[in-house]
Amino acid sequence: MGARTKARRRAVDLLFEAESRGLNAGDLARDRVVTPVTPAPLNEYTVTAVTGVVAHWNDINDALTTYSQGWTLDRMPDVDRAILRLGTWEILFSDDVPDQVAVSEAVVLATELSTDESPKFVNGLLGRIVEVKPTLV
Asked: Which domain holds residue 80?
């Protein structure tokens, strides 16, 4: 597993944990840099991704709500929301991640961490975000 893949997984973990605990994910990431809870420190990309998601929280949620076709954010599994937020941030706001890499990595995370139906849902929704990207940024 590559360093970026591991960093994405840690970012999803932090986004999921923060939402579950009612915390700001950016604050949680910064706290974990200062006081790590694992032997390995947080990867720089993990912190960048989490703070990027937080910085664009409303835009990301609006895009997901608009293009999820019949699924509200609240109805999605919590881990799917975290994966989709990260994937959407990479697609719309990260300049160094190709769109298809962001989608592919999100699908892998959904396969590993969520329900049997989640990879297809994540792929479809992020694929739609890629299609409409020119109208969103």
From this structure: 3-136
Residues 36-69 as b or e (16 or more Cβ within 10 Å = b): eeeeeebbebbbbbbbbbbebeeebbebbeebbe
Predicted confidence (pLDDT) per residue in 42-60, tens digit: 999 999 999 999 999 999 9
- pTM score, whole prediction: 0.95
Is residue 114 a contact partner of residue 79, using CB atoms and an 8 Å limit?
Answer: yes
Q: What total number of domains does the chain contain?
A: 1
For residues 125 and 64, the answer to whether their CB atoms sit within 8 Å is yes
Residue 90 belongs to a domain with what CATH number? 1.10.940.10
Nearest to 79 by CA among 35, 119, 49, 47: 119
